[in-house]
């Protein structure tokens, strides 16, 4: 069977390509419409034969190659749509010969180079679309596009220059690299209906004379560098529907004249430096649908009249300094709410029960305020709810029934995120938790007073990405079903009273990057299955009762980048050489275990380490020379071990902020290198430029003298402890020049001489 689509394409391309006699045979062709097909060949040079062609529509095809310059010989062309193809190369200047051109659309191609200056000859051009190409250089100016009523150059990231007076009904320059000030001349464009300048680098202030553009319906200035006050004159634009200026540096108060914008539907001024109160006159904006003033410095109460604008769908005033309480009937007066965001303010009072009447509510952000009292079970009527965020308030009463509302949320089948952390909720987690929306990706109940066990039904929430139950009163064992939550990225169960063992099923959490089970009563050995967690970046099992050898495939998890903390357990045996595979790890804490043997030289291969704590173990023999490779080390604690030998010379060259070698069997003289060379590290202390310093080396067998200039080279010293050694000579007077010293300890040495009167100047001692 013949493919009619292919046959048709072949016929058309024959007409347009090699067989020019067919084209010559169509001298009266005035309209050519091939749009929304799959034509793919380049345009033929012979297209100039179509002298009477007035309209050419070849949009949404796969035409490729360059536009032939001969197209500029089709003198009758008025409408030329070449958009949504694969044309490349430069835009031919010959198109400026098309004197009658009214509409030119070259968008969504791969054109490069500059926009031809000669386009200024197109006196009748009303619409020009050059969007989403690879055009570069400065946008043409002077008379170019002077009569265009619609101009779009968005999506050309290398196009730059200053904006100009184009005489358009719409100036669309968004998503480019324009700079300079918004020109005052725009105020002369009386027909202008839209100014779309978002995502550029415009500077300066908003021109006051924009108020002369009485037909303006849309002003979008998001994500520029605009400063100064918002001109009150913008309140005269009675036809304005949308005004957005997010992400600038606007300051001052919001003009009360905006209350006159009776047609306004969208007002968004978030992420600026606006201050003062929200004007009372805003209650007159009865057409308002979106209202966003977040991330400013606004204060005072929200005008009560704003809560009566029944058309409002987005109400976002987060991260300000607003106060007061929410009206008890707000769910009745704002029935069309989709998003209500007031987080990061100082609101007080109860959460209105009437919110359940805003039946289309999707996002509720009440976090980081001072709300108190109970959470109503009526919120379970919000069947479209997606995000439910109440964290960091004073909700709940630490009583048994505080969490009843969680069961009511089973009706919210679109829920993706619940966070009620850092409140006063008591009671136990209901088994119905497992009946929450299968779409739930985040559940946070941490920092409350929740008791009882973790319900096994939580294993039903198969799309969980983050589970945070930290700092509660939870008891019992960790359900093995948690290991079936294969999408978990973060699991935090720290600071509870959980007991038993770490389930080996946790080895199935192959997407997890943060695992924190610290500060519990977990026991037994560490399951080797944790070595399967190939995306783990942070592991914290500190302050438990875990024992046995640290498995090789755990101590060598090369994905770890942030920290591994196994502090305060009962791990024993040697620290295995595979630790050297932690090449990207920044922090390793193994304090207060029962580890023994040598400190493995492979630790020196962990070149990203900044914090290394091996204190409180049974490590012995010398400090390995390989630690010299830890060039970024800031804190090192090897205290309370059985280390012997001398303090390595290289320690004077490492940039410590804290060094503790106390309570070992070290001996010999202190290294002298580094005390005063280029502000580098001394034997135990970092340079002055590295912040707070501690110097701790008591209870060893060190001898020799302390460098005389130690307090000058280390002015940030906070603790200087060298007791229980065999140091000789004077106590350097310069020690007391370190004005931040809080602790000095010299006991049981062989120091001689007097103590400087400068000791009295240490006010923090």
TrEMBL record:
A family per Pfam: LRR_1
Protein's cellular compartments: Cell membrane
Keywords: ATP-binding, Cell membrane, Glycoprotein, Kinase, Leucine-rich repeat, Membrane, Nucleotide-binding, Receptor, Repeat, Serine/threonine-protein kinase, Signal, Transferase, Transmembrane, Transmembrane helix
SMART domains cross-referenced by the UniProt entry: LRR_TYP
Gene Ontology annotations for the cellular component aspect, listed alphabetically: plasma membrane
PANTHER family the UniProt entry points to: LEUCINE RICH REPEAT FAMILY PROTEIN, EXPRESSED, LEUCINE-RICH REPEAT-CONTAINING N-TERMINAL PLANT-TYPE DOMAIN-CONTAINING PROTEIN
Main location: membrane
This protein's record includes keyword Chloroplast: no
EC number: 2.7.11.1
Positions of the Disease resistance R13L4/SHOC-2-like LRR domain: 183-396, 407-544
Bilayer topology term: Single-pass membrane protein
Annotated protein name in UniProt: non-specific serine/threonine protein kinase
GO MF annotation terms: ATP binding; protein serine/threonine kinase activity
């Amino acid at each position: 069977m013949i493919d009619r689509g292919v046959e048709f394409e072949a016929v058309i391309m024959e007409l347009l390509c090699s067989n020019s006699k067919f084209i010559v045979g169509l001298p009266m062709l005035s309209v050519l419409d091939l749009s929304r097909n799959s034509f793919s060949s380049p345009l033929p040079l012979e297209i100039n034969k179509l002298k009477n062609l007035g309209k050419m529509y070849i949009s949404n095809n796969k035409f490729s190659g360059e536009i032939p310059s001969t197209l500029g010989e089709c003198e009758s062309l008025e409408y030329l749509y070449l958009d949504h193809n694969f044309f490349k190369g430069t835009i031919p200047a010959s198109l400026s010969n098309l004197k009658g051109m009214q509409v030119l659309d070259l968008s969504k191609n791969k054109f490069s180079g500059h926009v031809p200056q000669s386009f200024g000859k197109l006196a009748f051009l009303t619409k020009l679309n050059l969007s989403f190409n690879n055009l570069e250089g400065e946008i043409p100016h002077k008379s170019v596009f002077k009569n265009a009523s619609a101009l779009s150059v968005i999506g050309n990231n290398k196009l730059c220059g200053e904006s100009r007076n184009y005489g358009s009904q719409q100036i669309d320059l968004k998503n480019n690299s324009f700079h300079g000030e918004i020109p005052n001349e725009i105020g002369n464009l009386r027909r202008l209906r839209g100014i779309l300048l978002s995502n550029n680098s415009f500077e300066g202030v908003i021109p006051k004379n924009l108020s002369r553009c009485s037909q303006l319906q849309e002003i979008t200035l998001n994500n520029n560098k605009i400063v100064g006050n918002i001109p009150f004159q913008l309140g005269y634009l009675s036809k304005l529907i949308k005004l957005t200026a997010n992400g600038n540096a606007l300051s001052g108060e919001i003009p009360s004249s905006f209350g006159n914008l009776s047609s306004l539907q969208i007002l968004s001024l978030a992420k600026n430096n606006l201050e003062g109160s929200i004007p009372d006159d805003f209650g007159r904006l009865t057409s308002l649908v979106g209202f966003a003033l977040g991330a400013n410095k606004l204060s005072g109460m929200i005008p009560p009249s704003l809560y009566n604008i029944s058309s409002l769908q987005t109400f976002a005033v987060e991260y300000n300094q607003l106060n007061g309480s929410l009206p008890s009937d707000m769910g009745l007066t704002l029935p069309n709410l989709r998003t209500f965001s007031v987080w990061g303010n100082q609101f007080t009072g109860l959460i209105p029960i009437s919110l359940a009447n805003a039946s289309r509510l999707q996002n509720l952000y009440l976090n980081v305020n001072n709300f108190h009292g109970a959470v109503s079970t009526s919120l379970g009527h919000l069947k479209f709810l997606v995000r439910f965020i109440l964290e960091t308030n004073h909700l709940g009463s630490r009583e048994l029934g505080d969490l009843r509302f969680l069961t009511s949320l089973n009706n919210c089948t679109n829920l993706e995120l619940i966070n009620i952390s850092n409140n006063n909720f008591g009671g136990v987690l209901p088994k119905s938790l497992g009946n929450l929306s299968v779409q739930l990706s985040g559940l946070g109940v941490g920092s409350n007073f929740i008791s009882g066990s973790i319900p096994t039904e939580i294993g039903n929430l198969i799309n969980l990405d983050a589970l945070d139950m930290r700092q509660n009163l939870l008891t019992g064992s960790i359900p093995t079903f948690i290991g079936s939550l294969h999408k978990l990225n973060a699991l935090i169960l720290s600071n509870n009273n959980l007991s038993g063992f770490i389930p080996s099923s946790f080895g199935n959490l192959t997407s997890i990057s943060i695992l924190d089970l610290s500060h519990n009563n977990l026991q037994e050995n560490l399951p080797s299955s944790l070595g399967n967690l190939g995306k783990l970046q942070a592991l914290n099992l500190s302050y438990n009762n875990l024992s046995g050898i640290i498995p090789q495939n755990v101590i060598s998890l090369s994905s770890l980048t942030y920290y591994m903390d196994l502090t305060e357990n009962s791990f024993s045996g040697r620290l295995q050489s595979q630790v050297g595979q932690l090449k990207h790890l920044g922090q390793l804490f193994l304090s207060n275990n029962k580890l023994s043997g040598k400190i493995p030289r492979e630790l020196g291969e962990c070149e990203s380490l900044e914090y290394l704590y091996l204190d409180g173990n049974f490590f012995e023999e010398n400090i390995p020379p390989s630690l010299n490779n830890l060039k970024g080390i800031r804190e090192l604690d090897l205290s309370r071990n059985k280390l012997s030998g001398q303090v390595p010379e290289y320690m004077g060259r490492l940039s410590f902020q804290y060094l503790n070698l106390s309570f070992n069997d070290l001996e010999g003289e202190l290294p002298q290198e580094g005390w005063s060379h280029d502000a580098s590290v001394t034997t135990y202390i970092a340079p002055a430029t590295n912040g707070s310093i501690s110097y701790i080396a008591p209870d060893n067998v060190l001898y020799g003298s302390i460098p005389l200039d130690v307090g000058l080279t280390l002015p940030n010293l906070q603790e200087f402890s060298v007791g229980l050694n065999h140091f000789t000579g004077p106590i350097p007077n310069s020690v007391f020049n370190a004005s931040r010293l809080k602790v000095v300890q010299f006991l049981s040495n062989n120091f001689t001489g007097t103590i400087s009167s400068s000791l009295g100047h240490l006010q923090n001692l």
